[in-house]
Design brief:
Keywords: Ribonucleoprotein, Ribosomal protein, RNA-binding, rRNA-binding. Helices cover 47% and strands 6% of the residues. The chain is mostly helical.
């Protein structure tokens, strides 16, 4: 028997908006690792992270995508760049002068705080975050990664104006993707219709009333147009009759 995707005994956070995921997220705690071996710690960490980061990607695909050289982005201090011209990088022993870490001012607390180090471990799954289906879910265009994958496969997603049907497409900086608005509304909470629900009857009643009102408006517009045409034609006929009478009287 296959395991449940949203298990409650062993909570695992998934990339979706389901109530099970929210419940498991509220119960999520860091598992104890003091009495675990190194292999057990790796197994536990891998089971938790791979359950969240797009579990539909097979292990072989993830192995090919994974790169041990993790990229990093360091925030540039504009005040430091304005104060120095780069010559300090050549001072010292050829690798720049050793100075104290650059501090920045925290406006909320009114004090200076040390710049945090670059979180390299957060970039472990960056190849999965570049995937098109994951980006759609991150942009709140779908309620889950699986639903975003369905949108891509069915041709409701465009990348740079061209239809893209490959959910594993790796987005590049500057790429723009768009999803059909109707699909987005359906995925993000639009009212669903069911044959046995009272909501469907209400929707059908509202649609029928809207159709009837629209038909009435269309009929009234047609009647007004006909009346206007008749009013335009009547003066011409009266003028023609008057000219005929005057011609007969002259004879």
């Amino acid at each position: 028997m296959p395991r449940k995707f949203h298990g409650l005994k062993k909570p695992k956070v998934r990339q979706d908006w389901s109530k099970e995921t929210l419940y498991n997220l509220s119960r999520l705690v860091t598992p104890p690792a003091a009495n675990k071996t190194f292999f057990q710690q790796k197994w536990m960490a891998k089971s938790m992270t791979r359950a969240y980061h797009n579990p539909y990607v097979r292990e072989g695909q993830w192995t090919r995508m994974f790169d041990r050289r993790l990229p990093s982005v360091v925030s540039m201090n504009h005040q430091y760049l304005a104060r120095h011209d780069g010559s300090e990088q050549a001072t010292g022993r050829g690798s720049g002068a050793e100075e104290a870490p650059v501090m920045r001012y925290d406006g909320e607390r009114g004090q200076e705080k040390r710049i945090e180090k670059t979180p390299y471990m957060h970039m472990t799954f960056y190849p999965l975050e570049r995937r098109l289906d994951t980006a759609i879910w991150r942009a709140l265009f779908a309620s889950s990664v699986k639903q975003a994958r369905q949108f891509v496969v069915h041709g409701w997603v465009k990348v740079n104006g061209k239809r893209m049907v490959y959910p594993g497409y790796q987005l590049n900086p500057g790429d723009m993707f768009q999803v059909d608005p109707e699909r987005v509304m359906f995925a993000t909470g639009a009212r669903k219709k069911k044959k046995t629900s009272a909501v469907s009857d209400q929707d059908g009643r509202e649609e029928r009333e809207a159709d009837e009102q629209g038909s009435r408006v269309a009929k009234s517009q047609e009647e007004k147009e006909v009346e206007e045409q008749n009013e335009v034609e009547d003066p011409e006929s009266e003028a023609g009759a008057a000219t005929l009478e005057t011609d007969e009287e002259r004879e």
